[in-house]
Amino acid sequence: MSDYEIKKSDQHWREQLDALAYQVTRHAATERPFTGKYNDHWDAGHYQCVGCGADLFDASTKFDAGCGWPSFWQQLRDDAIERVVDRSHVMERVEVRCRKCGSHLGHVFDDGPQPTGERYCINSAALGFEPKR
Fold first, then answer.
1. Could you list the pLDDT tens digit for every one of the 133 residues in the chain?
2. Domains defined for the chain, CATH in brackets
3. Looking at the chain, which terminus has fewer C-beta neighbours within 10 angstroms, N or C?
4. Does 121 participate in catalysis according to the annotation?
């Protein structure tokens, strides 16, 4: 686990985040598919970490993967997201976390579109959005 720039007590996270965002970002829960506010959201702008406000994804890299969660083919910057091997649920996946605060975002898979071939499958509850101005 990385040494994150932003460190908060569990109580502080509970006070800052709503119940679902807390469970997703701090305990790696997953929101139900097709229920998140950003699943069918197509405005121009940047998606940010709900925990710390770090810019994570540009809306131009969002695509409809049909999986029920917002999907992106590229992170905004190479240093925006941390990858961690996740061996829970009797399988191996790659968990993605905000590199600044350690918030669980979702997972990345190798079945996305070109040019990266990646699909960042992200919980809406882990995201905020800043519209393009």
1. 458 999 999 999 999 999 999 999 999 999 999 999 999 999 999 999 999 999 999 999 999 999 999 999 999 999 999 999 978 767 788 999 999 999 999 999 999 999 999 999 999 999 999 999 8
2. 10-131 (2.170.150.20)
3. C
4. yes
